[in-house]
Amino acid sequence: MPESHYRICPLCEACCGLEVKTEGAKVISIRGADQDVFSHGYLCPKGVSLKDLHEDPDRLRTPLIKRDGKFVEASWDEAFAEIEKRLLPIWREKGPDSVALTIGNPAAHKVSLLAYTPRLVRALGTRNAYSASTLDQMPKQLSAGLMFGHWLSIPLPDIERCDYLLILGGNPMISNGSLWTVPDYRGKAKAMRARGGRIVVVDPRRSETAAAADEHLAIRPGGDALLLAGIAHTLFDENLVKLGRLEGHVNGLEEARAAVLPFAPEVTAAGCGIPAVTQRRIAREIAAAPHAAVYGRIGTCTTRFGTVNSWLVDLINALTGNLDREGGAMFAKAAAFAPNTQGKPGSGKGITTGRRRSRVSGAPEVFGELPITVMAEEMETPGEGQIKALITIASNPVLSAPGGPRIAKALDSLDFMLSMDIYVNETSRHADVILPGLSPLEDLHYDVAFPQLSHRNHARFSGPVFDAPAGTPQEWQTILRLCALLEGRGLDVDVAQLDDEAIESDVRRFAGDQTPAVLAALKPWRGPERLIDLQLRVGPYGDQFGRKPEGINLAKVKAASTVEGGGIDLGALTARIPEILRTPSGKIELAPPSVLADLAEVKTEPAPEFSLIGRRDTRSGNSWMHNLPVLAKGPDRCTLLVNPGDADRLGLSEFAKIKSAVGELIARVERSADMSPGVVSLPHGWGHDLDGVVLGVARERPGVNMNELLDDTARDPLSGNAVLSGVAVEIAPV
Ligand SMILES: Nc1nc2c(c(=O)[nH]1)N[C@H]1C(S)=C(S)[C@@H](COP(=O)(O)OP(=O)(O)OC[C@H]3O[C@@H](n4cnc5c(=O)[nH]c(N)nc54)[C@H](O)[C@@H]3O)O[C@H]1N2
Ligand SMILES: Nc1nc2c(c(=O)[nH]1)N[C@H]1C(S)=C(S)[C@@H](COP(=O)(O)OP(=O)(O)OC[C@H]3O[C@@H](n4cnc5c(=O)[nH]c(N)nc54)[C@H](O)[C@@H]3O)O[C@H]1N2
Ligand code: SF4
Ligand SMILES: [Mo]
């Protein structure tokens, strides 16, 4: 008899609820769960690929230890013994900074990793903590922290009530949304336009999202700060500033006005490629719309002025009265794990950066991390604090970060490397020990991060579809064992006891002498489930351990999270200012001094002959899903998109050579009228033909690694985020 299971997809930020049909140990089908209160049956081809991922023969099921340059299978005890023998002496003798840690994108989608890695970072005590955040959204987190007081208070479009949406550097038709959990963007955008709404997309390429919008503005790569400052200038210049409900809740309005004063559209037009009349019209349209939202994503973050861009987006939202208003850019209120629902509402400590600096380049720490683009130099450069060992957790920097070949070489120079990963891939092939995680279908799921970024509030949980193979730990258990090793407790530890200790220390922090009572109330849960129950119960919708009996807890969320129930809907977004603010002033800081100082650096740059930008494909997930047959089939996707006029002028045929200041690649040419002249596009996450990579399907069509063309010293100086777009290249026929 086939059985139906409810499972939330962990493969992108849309967090779709799926119905997984199984018979015995086989997956028969995967489809969208129609009753899901949040995703209503939506799924993309990646959701279906969970079957292939589960069955992938290359997916690791046992630990590997490298012996004489070759990986051999090992038991979990052998693997931990190897880690104790080789990692601990380095850490003890060379100091905590000698061991670095890098955390990758899939960790954001796993409670087992996201809720437990902070413990490992603390146990290591290293300043060398890195993550994909500095390849991605750190600028937005920094601007949110500076403006609203917390790194995770990020406004997002309330699309279901919005009349005017300006999207810059995001392609949710393909990415399914980012820092904006919005399953079925396509359907929601269509509905918005059907009720008379207008969508304008700013992108150097006529992306799929631009093609489905009312208007596409083909900006020069890297031109967003000029365009956004031109729009903000116009709002002041034409007396369109209307704070509305935010009146009395902002600081720095006059400083913001003065800062954008030099950026009249007539001045910025040449540098961003958007005519002054258009910039002024867009400003007026945003100001006039009943409900408007401005949203900027990857294309605005992964540039030299990522933080300035991210700030300007929310400045415009605020100036037009659209911040924190229905149909504008609003804040989610997550049921659990949301720091902006905890502590005293209305004001707080705000954020600080630069509490320490990287040893070689002096890059400031931001949100507890250093830029991932300094990791290689910290390995290469001798001296006190040099990185000698590395732990990677769901992270593939050899493909996903600029300067992959340099990183690969630096990894080979380490004394020890541990990868928590599910494949032997471009990065983990360098490891001495690999500890695998479970297939998503063997793991429970509760989203820690994305309900904080969702277009509607919800609480959903899914249990494992299949039992984990006997003896295979869940990843949170692996992390607790690693912490115990660092605490000197050796190999022979009781993981259940480690779990009890971990939760007790969490509870004690807020419950004080009520700790035993709270712990008793959290029975019968263990592991992440106990954490989730705790967080749900003390959260904004929680039962407060019985003080609000109608409130939610894990048992209630579980009971509702079935194929038929689809989770708990917690309603449309509601206004949260001033309650959400954690700035010391208790106001929205419209003019953070560090950002204004960087805005003053924005100027018109001469255009290179060609600018390289990235792109994402429906059937990719960054660097690691190319081994799944259902996604790998079809046309070659790692192609260089070139405007047909440019291709003719250069005489390009099948292949082209792409040369940057730091590297050179040959890629297949695909002519595309969607590309602006002078702009070419390559996707990231390819280049699977490196020695030692065990990805049978991906190796058949490995593609090339576009990050070999990117300069790892190019960063947004405020957030440390890497520059991944708008890179000058030369193109030549092959
Ligand atoms: N040029 C360019 N480069 C980019 C980008 C771009 O737009 N352009 N985008 C950047 C962005 S936004 C991001 S987020 C980064 C992503 O870069 P990374 O953070 O490196 O993430 P992935 O490339 O997704 O690689 C994920 C790794 O996790 C492993 N993995 C998958 N599932 C699990 C699991 O359940 N457990 C464990 N332990 N491991 C698992 C995979 O095998 C793989 O090694 O790439 C960045 N790189
Ligand atoms: N299918 C699929 N979905 C994914 C991923 C994936 O790899 N594949 N990755 C996931 C991850 S980790 C993330 S972070 C999200 C990212 O989600 P999105 O931010 O939607 O990412 P992209 O699809 O890369 O869209 C970025 C857009 O910015 C444009 N762009 C490039 N340079 C500039 C510029 O200078 N200015 C402007 N205005 N635009 C520019 C690009 O042409 C592109 O269309 O997607 C997630 N979803
Ligand atoms: S859109 Fe994202 S969450 Fe939904 S099925 Fe596709 S990969 Fe999974
Ligand atoms: Mo990302």
Automatic annotation (TrEMBL):
Q: Which SUPFAM superfamilies match?
A: ADC-like (SSF50692), Formate dehydrogenase/DMSO reductase, domains 1-3 (SSF53706)
Record-linked SMART domains: Molybdop_Fe4S4
The name on file for this protein is Anaerobic selenocysteine-containing dehydrogenase
What keywords tag this UniProt record? 4Fe-4S, Iron, Iron-sulfur, Metal-binding, Oxidoreductase
Q: Where is the 4Fe-4S Mo/W bis-MGD-type domain?
A: 2-58
Q: A Pfam family name for this chain?
A: Molybdopterin
Q: What is the lineage of its organism?
A: Bacteria, Pseudomonadati, Pseudomonadota, Betaproteobacteria, Burkholderiales
